[in-house]
Design a protein that fits this description.
It contains 18 helices and no strands. By secondary structure, the protein is mainly α. Helix 1 runs antiparallel to helix 9, helix 13 runs parallel beside helix 15 and helix 14 packs antiparallel against helix 15. The longest helix has 32 residues. The two termini are 33 Å apart.
Length: 453
Amino acid sequence: MISQTTPDPILEARLKGNLTRFVYFRLFYNARFYYPIFTILFLDYGLTLEQFAILNLVWALTIVLAEVPSGALADIIGRKRLLVTAAVLMVVEMLLLVLVPMGASPLLFSVFLLNRICSGLSEAAASGADEALAYDSLKAMGRESEWSGLLERTTTTVSVGFFVTMISGALLYDAALVNGVLGWVVSDLTLSTETIVRLPVIFTLCNACIVLGIALGFREPPTTVAVTQEPGLTLWRRLLSPFRQILNAARWTLGHRFVLLVILAALALDSVARQFVVLASEYYRIIDIPVAWFGFIGAAMSLLGILNAKLSRYMVSSQAPVNNFLWLSAALLVGLVGITLVLPLFGVVFAVAAFSILGMVSYQSSYYINKEVDSAHRATVLSFRGLALNLGLGLASLFYTGLIATLKATDTSGLAGDALRETVFTRALPAFPIYFLVLFVLLMALGRRYWRA
């Protein structure tokens, strides 16, 4: 087990460094300049809305398949190695989009498919490993009680990073603004439309390189020797060790119903909210918000993350978990019903709920799970949460893709192109609150059955 105190000042300094690196790893890993124009970016590269939905499904399924094995590997071979792998994959992911030729073609879809696979593998490798390394660093210093404070500080820092990248990302996508500034600095200097489309990706590639440097600086907390490093272990047992780790962690999770219900509650809330957030830029365009405003809206949403972190810290310390779930469910449902009204400009108010829910679910589920799980299974159990969230998103994406295809096939308006896309998008919005209500009812029924048992 991990020691509870660290008398070695050098070791303690390294463990404290892990806490700082954890904050900045999260900051630069999540600060992606293309987020405010995510959907539009894919479409402007030359993809269709259906291809976009398929790519998101592939991304989610990649994480589903890699999430738990990567968590088990993190518990066995070390969390740092998984974080370095995540950073390398992020660099590759961004390079693909920087280099791929634009315009609808089989090559474009193939490269974006590879991009989504790399992104999914990167997310899976990072998910759980960074939290486990940070929490075990606190535990090694006997400071586990500071976990909620570290989560709040991390959320606040990431929110500030989002604020900057959301504004700058949208501004970088405004061709008139970029070329106007360049022309003012250097006479007659302009960038092509294709180059401007790539600018948010290029800046994110720079962030990916920073993430790689941070990951290389992590230090593993003192733990027992990993099973794969035990002397005399046969090759067969080394190969089987990740699967044994997964099985042991699965037994532990199923035997701790509270942790299982936390994971399922996170799935219900996160999957619906995230599916809407993925499509948020298209929603903004539907409600007549200029593209140049997208970044400012995203920035405002990110600043709400600071308030959400403080609110989440209060909720986990003063409210029962089931009450927190009910409050979050009510807030999300109000937002989902509101977006179906498609109110010009003012409809953005209802989008706040979906963005807020994502941060609060991440904070509260992390707090509850880390508080309950032991160090030997920490990254694996956290990967179960990541698996559940991305499986939920994958199912929501599959449902949404099928719904869009059905609405297009049955459309009798005679519209085509952008007009048809906007009409179909608007008609699909009522599915969001209905889908969440189904998940909510199923979870409440399962929860009652578990507690009675």
